[in-house]
Design a protein that fits this description.
The complex is a heterodimer. By secondary structure, chain A is an alpha/beta fold. Helices cover about 40% and strands about 15% of the residues of chain A. Chain B has one domain: OB fold (Dihydrolipoamide Acetyltransferase, E2P), CATH 2.40.50.100. Chain B starts with a strand and ends with a strand. Classes of the chains: A alpha/beta, B mainly beta.
Chain lengths: ~525, ~70
């Protein structure tokens, strides 16, 4: 082909790809309240930074060539806040966003290799129902569209983010299942198979919302980390998440300068924490008081709310916070909270983010339901993650810390570099009243005035639980004034940064699964 | 005029109720105390407005998601 006609042909092919699935399909996508794949990419990336890969792709099935511009999956590199990322976006306007062999397999495999080698985060935007028929039909079809092992051999080299921006089955759901961070647009569905398949195969009638809607993933499965009102909100959440992350596992997260003084006194925490041990409060308020500019980024906020996991910054550096939430189930972590804690420790350790623990828990959530969900195993998965993590860890006992939960929150000998308590700390193997009744029952029963004896023992027990004995034996490092907490954390982080590798971890947790 | 339905965040027992129908409340005011797992949990007004319904009574057991109070804002 001569140059002139070659250039014309190139231009024609590119133009056709940019039309995606055509005006009618684009209009339908907009009517559903969603952006197209190309609009999403442009809203996600810094303006003018998108370098597309594979725009000339099309289906490799005979007579389907013209029907699948970019083979239904738009990919390329671009920048977010000036840092390079790789993005894939399923194109719902092309054959309903299903995955083609060329667009999903050939294209993604090559681009991913570069992103991982060069150290760039990967964002995959799901909007479709799994592999395309006919691409996957027959023994040759399925064999050419397996989940390639290569794609799973880069454990947490770079942050991997998945979004669910339409009803997603198969492929996009697998991506969410292996992602470090998943955002879902409300009104969408994430599941293995769609309702139509279920009805035919199982006779089960169910709506997409019931099968894999946002509330299910928010409250019951915990498989999604954040929820968006619409596509634009979803993309803002992705950008914000990545602002806390390094580009890859060999870097520290970006430093974000702040005007917030590193030694600011946090007197307000005294008003937030009630004097009465049995009165709850909102731990988010304590976190907001301590971190830079009162700003934090919650992860899985609706899943087992007895435990908070969130990202924030201290003196401009990303930190991960694991905190009991006394206003939900008294802060007693159940099976879901154990999963949250373990997966968050893995995330932070893999991407060089120091961890801060804030204790206020009466112990683990016990009972039949919790036991049915493997509590001992889950408690120990959390402990193993904690033990294998090598980022700096600072642990602060705000109020209660009872039983095994004290260990899991990085209590004595459990991996904290600095472990301190507020004067309000109450550290014990069991809640005071329960403990007195269990341990001293014979004494109380034999007493002349059992009630008076019980109250006397309770007072003594409370004194024993105060942090002074542990501090005196150097089982904790110190007791600090609550108002000095921000300054204490910042000074500790400065010490723990050391003179060598900084916050870069040894990554013993890098190959752990993302869903625990 | 919008109706804000305050629901129970978890199972528990209504220990005390601090408001009655017709009261004006500000965002953040304590509406009632829900006792759960021996912890007293203040349930606060998510918005300011007038109390138009108190659906529970003191000592009552509630489940997570139960309707507690309605505020007209």
């Amino acid at each position: 082909m001569d140059m002139k006609s070659g250039l014309e042909e190139l231009s024609r092919r590119r133009e056709k790809a940019l039309q995606m699935g055509g005006k009618a399909n684009i209009d339908r996508q907009h009517q559903r309240g969603h952006l197209t794949a190309r609009e999403r990419i442009h809203k996600l990336l810094d303006p003018g930074t998108f370098s597309e890969v594979g725009i000339l792709n099309q289906s490799d099935i005979h007579a389907m060539e013209d029907k699948a511009p970019a083979d239904g999956n738009i990919a390329g590199f671009g920048k977010i806040d000036g840092r390079t990322v790789l993005v894939y976006a399923a194109d719902r306007t092309v054959l309903a966003g299903v995955e083609g062999r060329v667009g999903t397999f050939a294209k993604e495999t090559r681009a991913t290799r570069i992103a991982v080698e060069k150290g760039y985060p990967i964002i995959t935007m799901g909007d479709g129902g799994g592999a395309r028929i006919p691409d996957i039909m027959g023994s040759d079809g399925l064999s050419s569209m397996t989940f390639p092992a290569e794609g799973l051999r880069y454990p947490r080299k770079t942050p991997f983010v998945a979004t669910i921006m339409g009803d997603c089955f198969g492929g996009p759901s697998w991506m969410a299942g292996k992602a470090d961070f998943v955002v879902m647009v409300k009104g969408c569905c994430m599941a293995v198979s769609g309702p139509r398949v279920l009805e035919i195969a199982m006779g089960e009638k169910i709506t997409p919302e019931e099968l894999g809607g946002w509330e299910l993933h928010a409250e019951v499965t915990g498989q999604v980390d954040a929820f968006a009102e619409d596509d634009e909100h979803c993309l803002r959440i992705v950008r914000e998440f990545l602002s806390y992350m390094p580009s890859n596992c060999d870097e520290e997260p970006p430093y974000v300068p702040t005007q917030d003084p590193s030694d600011r006194k946090v007197d307000e925490v005294m008003d937030i924490l009630p004097d009465d041990l049995n009165r709850s409060y909102d731990m988010y308020k304590i976190i907001a008081a301590i971190v830079d500019d009162g700003k934090y980024f919650p992860i899985k906020p609706y899943y087992d709310q007895s435990l908070i996991i969130c990202l924030a910054r201290m003196n401009g550096m990303t930190v991960g916070i694991v905190a009991n939430q006394p206003s939900f189930f008294a802060g007693a972590a159940g099976p879901g909270a154990c999963e949250k804690a373990a997966s968050f420790i893995v995330l932070c350790d893999s991407f060089n983010i120091p961890l801060i623990f804030l204790h206020d828990t009466p112990g683990f959530f016990v009972g039949h339901e919790a036991e049915k969900r493997k509590m001992p195993g889950r408690i120990m998965v959390w402990m193993e993650a904690l033990a294998l993590s090598t980022v700096p860890k600072i642990s602060i006992v705000v109020r209660k810390s009872y039983g095994m939960a004290y260990s899991n929150m990085a209590g004595t000998n459990c991996g904290a570099d600095f472990l301190v308590a507020w004067p309000t700390a109450d550290i014990s193997f069991m809640a005071p009243r329960t403990g007195v009744n269990v341990v001293y029952r014979p004494v109380i029963e034999a007493a002349e005035n059992p009630e008076a004896e019980r109250e006397r023992l309770l007072k003594e027990w409370e004194y024993q639980n105060a942090p002074w004995k542990a501090a005196a034996k150097h089982l904790i490092d110190d007791v600090i004034e609550p108002r000095d907490t921000r300054e204490f954390i910042n000074k500790s982080l400065d010490i723990l940064r050391g003179s060598g590798r900084g916050f870069i971890s040894k990554k013993y947790l890098q190959a752990w699964p993302t869903v625990l | 005029m919008a109706e804000e339905i305050v629901k129970s965040p978890m199972p528990g027992i209504i220990k005390s109720i601090d408001v009655a129908v017709g009261d004006q409340v500000n965002e953040g005011d304590t509406l009632l105390i829900l006792e759960a797992m021996k912890m007293e949990n203040p349930i606060v007004a998510p918005v300011g407005g007038r109390i138009s319904e108190v659906s529970i009574s003191q000592g009552q057991s509630v489940k997570g998601g139960d309707r507690l109070i309605v505020i007209e804002s």
